[in-house]
Amino acid sequence: MNTKKHHIQITAILLLIGLAPSFSHAELGSNTTSVLAEQKEFNSQLATSNQNGATVYTLTLPSGTVIQEYASANGVIFALSWSGPELPNLQVILGNYFKDYLAGIKQSRGAFSINTENLVIQSAGMMGAFQGFALLPKQAPVGFTIKNLAQ
Description:
- This protein is of the alpha+beta class.
- The protein has one domain.
- A hairpin with a 2-residue loop joins β1 and β2.
- The protein has a seven-stranded antiparallel sheet.
């Protein structure tokens, strides 16, 4: 096979993979239709409860880390929290907001927070004990605040 042609084919395949949409996660700001896919990816236990007008999906990972995802009545994940001995895959659970997390952590060492009218993220911890949360205040049910998040 011609090396140039082979390079073009590989580049095209990589581009298609990179451009393919990812719908397999119940990430912050998306809907809850994929919670089961996330459970499978993390190989976690799933429990569901209700709290202050929100449905709470609790994922317990094999490491012992717990992720709680809060969904509004219309099925949008408006908040999440994590706590445990290992950080969960934050790129998966924060989704499009992961870039905001990266920007915040670059400006800080250790614990940090982002607090805007559209997004609140707080993260802290050390090896063996991590915790944090993310909240989309404008999408939260009336009366739901940071104090309602498991921390």
